[in-house]
Every structure is written in structure tokens, then in C-alpha cells.
Amino acid sequence: MKLPSLDYTCPATLTEAIATLAAHDGAAKVIAGGQSLMPMLAFRLAAPKLLVDIGRLPDLNRIDISDDGIDLGALVTWRMIERDTRLARAHPLLAAAIAHVAHYQIRNRGTVGGSLAHADPAAEMPGIAVTCDAVLTIVGTNGTRIVPASTFFLGNLETVLDPDELIVSLRLPPWRRERRWGFAEFARRRGDFAMTGVAAYYDVDPQGNISDAHVGVIGVADRAVRLTDVEKALNGQRSGVELIRQVAELARGAVDPPDDIHAEGAYRRELVGVLLERVLASAGDIAMPEAA
Ligand code: FAD
């Protein structure tokens, strides 16, 4: 379908962008890479009167790595993450997950801020943000607020963003070099949205036991979710085949995905267990025996 008729503006500063959004009281919409918004417009799932193109705002396409963590500007694209060789060491889980996002053309345009604001429950970036306790910096007419990813997403395509607010950046906490981690997802074709995906990481204490386990899942609920019971069951234990099998079973029971046009909920639930086994086996360098 053709796009609806609408106006377009491309502000030069953040202040101008926010003032424009505020002046239109919900009738204006930010556009970044356009990779989610353009299809939404074409399908009439969004009908703004004005598009506010943030593509020229300065400083929003920076990737900063420091002892305090990793800051990804809202306009950082998937391609920039993929090309930044520092990130493979500074945050290997992020790099591994983003490698699964979409196809070549979309990766050149799609942005971190766009993905977070769009809030697709199967998207990788929100999944990593929730798994890693990331925080978002959001700016609007009432000033700046720092919002944890755990409270930013309200549901399928829903967030706490007000119509006059912009995501400016996402901060991931610092990554410990010796940390164990894994990411796996299943999609019908490479580049498609994941049917289900699992991200996990943990540290190993001096006794060789797991500590600070984080496990997040995408594609099973109306937003990315943490499997806190699985995290508790991992902490204090030594990784091995039995533990991995046990927590994979726990994970299957911890999710209740709905049926949809792509798969039955039961299929996705089984995927969560299978993918978590793979992720934890690769994180711990453990060879899992073939299932009987
Ligand atoms: P836009 O489309 O420009 O905007 C999306 C929404 O975010 C809009 O509501 C817009 O108003 C809002 N917005 C944008 N930037 C900001 C900001 N800074 N502050 C506040 N609001 C903002 N994504 C995945 O994660 N995994 C996939 O496997 C995947 N596969 C895809 C396959 C196809 C065929 C297509 C078309 C897309 C796919 N995507 C996938 C989505 C893609 O990654 C998008 O680029 C991304 O979700 C949105 O980023 P964008 O910059 O294009 O946002």
C-alpha cells in the first residue's frame, strides 16, 4: 500500500526535535531508520500527521566504551555494532545477539533507539537490554529521565515513552572479561524475527560455582522476559549436564507463550528449553549427550 499523506521535518537539534513533538501533541512521530515505521505506515497501523526525522541529530550515533559500561547512541545501527571490533571483546553477548537481526539492507538502516521504541517482543536489542540490566536515557520537554529496561517495556509495541520523548541512548553495564555467556535463537529463515531466543550469562566464583546468573528470553510473551527462577537455580551451582537439564526443564515451565500464526505456544515452550540447554552448554564448554 502507498504511504498515507503526511508532513515531514528534519530538525537539526535535540531541543528542536522535542519542541516539534510536543507542539503536535501525539500527532507527530519520530522516524529513525524507518525499518519498522515505514511498514507500519503502509499498513495503516500508524497514522501520524508529521514525521520528525532524527537522522541528523548530532552525537546520537556514538558507541562509547569505558569502565562504566557501554553507551549506544539511539542512532547506532546494527551495521555499526557489527563493524565495531571493540564490541566483540567489550560485550560479546551484544555482538552475538545483534548478528541475528534482520537482513543486510535493514541492518544498514535499523537503529538501537528505533528497536527499543518499537518494542517488538521478539527483537534482540530489547532482549539484551532486559537480560543485561541496561538503562535508557530519555529526553522530553520535562527533562531527562533514566529508565531501566526492566520497566521500559509495557507490552507488545508498548513502552513508557511519552509522545514528546526521545530515546537518546542505552547504557549496558560493564562486562567482566572472564564472564561465561551464550546466545541462541530459532527463526524460520535467517534474518527473520526470532520465533524464540535465549540470552544468558554468569560469572564463576573462586569455588567454581555460578554466580550472578542472568537469563532472558524473547518471543514468548508480550515483551522480553527474565527467567528469575532459572537464574536462582543456577546461582551457587557448578555447571554440568545434570544442572543444565534441570534448569532447561524449569525454563519450559516458566513460560506460557500464546499460540499464534507462526507456532503453537507448546512449540515455543519446547524451544526455550532446547535453546537454554545450548546456550548454557556453550557458556560452560560442556558437551551435552545426545537426547535419548
Ligand atoms: P523506525 O522504523 O524509524 O521507528 C520505529 C519506532 O520507533 C517508531 O515508532 C518511531 O517513532 C520510534 N523511534 C525511533 N527512534 C526513536 C527514538 N530515538 N526515540 C523514540 N522513538 C523512536 N528487528 C529485530 O530486532 N530482529 C529482526 O530479526 C528483525 N527482522 C526484520 C525483518 C524485516 C523484513 C524488517 C522490515 C525489519 C526487521 N527488524 C528486525 C526491525 C528492524 O531491526 C528495525 O530497524 C528496528 O526495529 C527499528 O529501528 P528503526 O531505526 O528502523 O526505527
Descriptive notes:
With 292 residues, this protein is α+β, with helices and mostly antiparallel strands. It has three domains: 7-53, Uridine Diphospho-n-acetylenolpyruvylglucosamine Reductase, domain 2; 63-172, Uridine Diphospho-n-acetylenolpyruvylglucosamine Reductase, domain 3 (2-Layer Sandwich), CATH 3.30.465.10; 180-284, CO dehydrogenase flavoprotein, C-terminal domain (Enolase-like, domain 1, 2-Layer Sandwich). The protein is built from twelve helices and 14 strands. It has helices spanning 14-23, 37-42, 78-83, 85-90, 92-98, 104-109, 112-118, 124-131, 149-152, 228-234, 241-254, 265-283, and strands at 7-9, 28-31, 50-53, 63-66, 69-73, 135-140, 143-148, 153-155, 158-159, 166-172, 180-186, 196-204, 210-218, 225-226. The chain has a five-stranded antiparallel β-sheet. The longest helix has 19 residues, at 265-283. The protein is globular and about 60 Å long. Bound molecules: flavin-adenine dinucleotide. Residues 29-37, 39, 54, 74, 101-102, 106, 109-111, 113-115, 117-118, 123-125, 161, 166-167, 192-193 line the site of flavin-adenine dinucleotide.
